[in-house]
Please model this.
Amino acid sequence: MAAVPRTTDGDGTPVPQRLLAAATRLFAERGYDRTSVQEIVEAAGVTKGALYHYFGSKDDLLHEVYARVLRVQQERLDHFAGMDAPVDQRLRGAAADVVVTTIENLDDAMIFFRSMHHLSPEKNKQVRAERRRYHERFRALIEEGQKEGVFSTATPADLVVDYHFGSVHHLSTWYRPDGPLTPQQVADHLADLLLRALRP
Model:
């Protein structure tokens, strides 16, 4: 009978987290297609058996790199959307938060948008559905404000969503941690731009 892989290593870090950390670093440095499973397990200090115990394939690792960030962002968007506050405050909070959480996970975002086409058709479809759910919740806030007369209806809500997330998705191409702006400052500027664009 095959041995069950250890859940943690010597310092207590769970093996799945070690694998994800190693994969994220290598995918960011070398690219998804130029990183082998062997290199990932060596960097994580585990066996191939451990990788296949937690992740069925390298494809599954790539999906999880993105999915873990999206899960956090979805939870936080649900929190902002459900707050007892005026819709413009809730939208501004959500718009700024997605910028901060993207910058905090910049490697993950960069890897994903650079390598998404490597996902299997099934995984690609799953990711698109997860992103659609997020965007629909964000769009619902805009539509709520438009119905209340707080936001202008001159631009369709779908286009407003694309406008904001276009900025978010480009963060990995220009944002530098040692640059002049902190993550929160960038988030505040982009959220303010969005609210100004929606002003009646």
